[in-house]
Each structure stands twice: as structure tokens, then as C-alpha cells.
Amino acid sequence: MYEQAEPVRSPFSGPDSRQSSNPPPQPRPVRQSGSRGRVRHGNGASDKQRPREDQDTSSHTYENAEEAKRYATSADRAYPGGASGRCGVCSFLRARRSCQAAGIAVLLGLVAVGLAPLTFSNKQEISQLSTTVDALKRDLDNERNRAAALEQRLHEIEKTLPSCPEGYTIGRGICYKACNTLKTFSEADATCRVDGGTLAMPRDADTNDFLVSLYKPVNDHTSFWFGLHDQREEGRFEWVDGSALGPYNSWAPKEPNDAGSGEDCAVYSAKLKHKWNDQPCHFQLYFICQAAPGNSCIFAIP
Ligand code: MMA
Ligand code: CA
């Protein structure tokens, strides 16, 4: 069995109680490589017999201790907690933090310098837009005022213009009225003349469309007389003012056909899709009058 080795003693430690006199204390023995027993030490004879390797090992131990001390000192410097290197580490860390802070400050400064023109530019644009919006608002107000003034002026002018007889509606500068009383063709025309007008004479498509839209609300499933006939000569239609029909007409298909015992007066026919038809003039039907604005007998009476 191995003997228990003596504890390692530092060359700086005090004299061993067992070795209070020379020779000076030796480093602790180490196991011989390949030896079966323990090498005694502590006496000169044994030490002299110690192999060189053992002495080297002892020297290493001493150097290691020195190195450990140096290491400890450097470790103290490198890591906080070490006694002697703490201030150095703190300084290092402070320096690092300062560097980082300085770097961040520089970056922020650069960003601020870069953003400053943009901010300035945006402020300028916002200011310009705000000015434009204000100008547009002023323009809008002015236009509203102008429109209100024009509307007022229009109402004043309308009051001075000749108006249609009561119940008539103006279309293309002429007054028209759809009457829902039953009359023969001649009775109807006579009634219109009381208002200073005649049966309606639609000489163009626009006027025709206007008349259809006028009488439909009065009645859209019957016929309305208007001022066209061929009573003087069969097949030669003329307006009630004696003028010829002209190029425009709105006859329904296969009309005028002078059906039955004769048909010489014209109507708007709901059953023929509001197209023209010729009918016997003695039929009692609704009718449409026309009158010039301000030409009513109502206004003509002193
Ligand atoms: C009725 C009458 C005529 C018209 C035909 C169309 C039967 O007669 O309104 O004037 O031409 O219908 O079918
Ligand atoms: Ca007919």
C-alpha cells in the first residue's frame, strides 16, 4: 500500500516543526512513476536518492505556485471580484460603456441631421397644403355666394317674363296643357282657343316626347286629341293653324288608315303605344292645348 504523502508546503511557508534545522525544507514528495513504494523524503539521504524527475516535479510545483499567484493577480485585473484588478475591470467596462454611449449618441446625431431636412420639407409641404386648402375654401365660399346671387337674379327676371296660362306647362318656349274633359275634335280646339291657343301641334320629336310625358300622368290608357286633321282633303294632313304636316310624324304602324266610315282627326293612342292614329272627329275624347306664354285670354281681358 502507498504511504500517505506529506502535504505540499510552499517554499514561502514557515519552517516545519519537524524540520526546525537544516537542511531546509524540501518540496513534498511525489509518487515515482513505476515505483511500487513510497519514496521517503525529509532526510538528506533519501533526497539525494530521489530521481531527477522528482526534483523537476518539485520545481514545477514551486513555479506553478508562482504562476498561480501571477494568474490570480491577472485574473483579479480581468474579472470583478478579484481584489487587485477590480478597478481596472471597472475602468475597462466604464470605458466600453462610454464608447457605446458615444457611438449611440453619434448615430442619433447623424439620424437627427438626416431627418432634419425631411422634417423641414414636410413642414413646408404641410404649410403649402394648408394654404391651398384655405384658398380653395375661400373660392368655394365665393362660388356659393355667386350662385346664390345668380339664383336670386334669375327669380327676378322670371317675374318680368310672360308666363303660361293657369294649368299650362312650358316646354321649348310654348305652354301646353293636357285636359281631362271629353270633347269632339272641334269642341276641343275651340276650348283651347279660349285660352288664346289651339290644339297642340307637335312638329318635332322633342315636342312630341314632351307632350306624351305631359298627358301620361293625366291618363295613360286612353286617347288625346291634338291639332292635326285631313278634313279638307282625304290623306292630306294639316295642322289646325292651316300649315302642312311637314316632314315629322309619329304615326303608329299602318296608320293613318281612315278606318270604318272615315277617320280624319289625329290622337295620341295609348293602345298603339302612344303613337299617332286617325279617329272619327265626332268622338268625345281628352285633348291637349297649346298657348304662347303671356298670350292667354285671361291676361288679355282689361
Ligand atoms: C281601331 C281604331 C282605328 C285603328 C285601329 C288599329 C279597329 O279600329 O282605333 O283608328 O286604326 O283600331 O287597329
Ligand atoms: Ca286609324
From TrEMBL:
Fetch the Pfam families from UniProt. Lectin_C
From start to end residue, where is composition biased (Basic and acidic residues)?
47-57
| CDD domains registered for this protein in UniProt | CLECT
Residue ranges annotated as coiled coil are 126-160
GO MF, one annotated term: carbohydrate binding
List all membrane-crossing ranges. Answer: 101-120
Q: Which UniProt keywords apply?
A: Coiled coil, Disulfide bond, Lectin, Membrane, Transmembrane, Transmembrane helix
Q: Where is this region: Disordered?
A: 1-77
Q: Which InterPro entries does the record cross-reference, listed alphabetically?
A: C-type_lectin-like, C-type_lectin-like/link_sf, C-type_lectin_CS, CLec_Tetranectin-domain, CTDL_fold
Q: Where is the C-type lectin domain?
A: 171-290
Question: What is the protein name stated in its UniProt record?
Answer: C-type lectin domain family 3 member A-like
Protein's organism: Branchiostoma belcheri
Q: What does the organism's lineage look like at the top? A: Eukaryota, Metazoa, Chordata, Cephalochordata, Leptocardii
UniProt gene name:
LOC109487644
